[in-house]
Design brief:
The chain is of the alpha+beta class. It has two domains: 81 residues, Sulfite Reductase Hemoprotein,Domain 2 (Sulfite Reductase Hemoprotein, domain 2, Alpha-Beta Complex); 131 residues, 2-Layer Sandwich (Sulfite Reductase Hemoprotein, domain 1). It contains six helices and ten strands. The strands form two sheets. Strands 1, 2, 3, 4 and 5 form a five-stranded antiparallel β-sheet that branches. Strands 6-7-8-9-10 form a five-stranded mixed β-sheet, covered by helices on one side. It is globular and about 50 Å long. The protein starts with 9 loop residues before the first strand and ends with a helix. The relative contact order is 0.10.
Length: 218
């Protein structure tokens, strides 16, 4: 059923759908919420929800309203819509948070990681981008975790918040922006080439071993 839609949706048990959209990585203007509410009314959306990934989720959407709603969202917000392959969550960062490491812009980095993700078919890869060791984007329990300390960016891999929770293993630290993006490109490529079907990243790493991943990307 989902193949008929122009955007990923989730089927509910009552045969309605939910559509979640990330606008400016979740850091929206007050007037944006007015526009979102107007679109929800226009397309007879039953309920709405703000997700843990800072997305606006339209719930109880009828099948015939999914594509028109998505088209209106694209027309209204354009390039402000973040649409990675996978899910990318960012913390408030240096624009708002006093703990954020100086000189690191996690919102810009989130957008750059989004572009890296689009180069690969690695499936459902969740990424958290945090601008300090406090990990407000829950980076350490993501497939790929990006956080920061006084030395630069830190990368962890294989985290999981599902039925069997797992903290990711450190892959590298002290990276600048270019080094981070180059490493993430290799990690996405590794996942794309080594996962089996819909296997999540932590299971791929458990099956092949963390040293196998390190040998391929470091």
């Amino acid at each position: 059923m989902e193949q008929q839609f122009n955007y990923h949706v989730t089927l509910h048990k009552d045969n309605t759908y939910s559509l979640a959209v990330s606008i400016d990585q979740g850091y929206m203007l007050p007037e944006d919420f007015v526009l979102v509410a107007e679109l929800a009314k226009k397309h007879n959306v039953g309920k709405m929800m703000l997700t843990t990934e800072k997305k606006v989720s339209f719930m109880d959407v009828a099948a015939e309203e999914v594509n028109p709603l998505w088209a209106d969202l694209q027309e209204t917000f354009g390039e402000r819509i973040c649409n990675p392959k996978g899910k990318i969550t960012v913390c408030p960062g240096s624009m708002y948070c006093k703990f954020a490491m100086a000189g690191l812009d996690n919102h810009a980095m989130g957008r750059k990681i989004e572009e890296v993700s689009k180069k690969h078919n690695a499936g459902k890869v969740k990424v958290g981008v945090s601008c300090c060791p406090r990990n407000c984007a829950m980076s350490q329990i993501k497939d790929i975790g990006v956080s920061a300390n006084v030395k630069g960016w830190v990368v962890t891999v294989g985290g999981n918040a599902g039925m069997i929770a797992k903290v990711g293993e450190k892959l590298a630290d002290g990276l600048n922006d270019d080094e981070l993006l180059a490493l993430l490109d290799k990690v996405y490529q590794y996942i794309e080439e080594n996962k089996k079907d819909n296997e999540r990243t932590n299971k791929t790493i458990a099956r092949l071993g963390i040293e196998h991943l390190k040998a391929a990307v470091l």
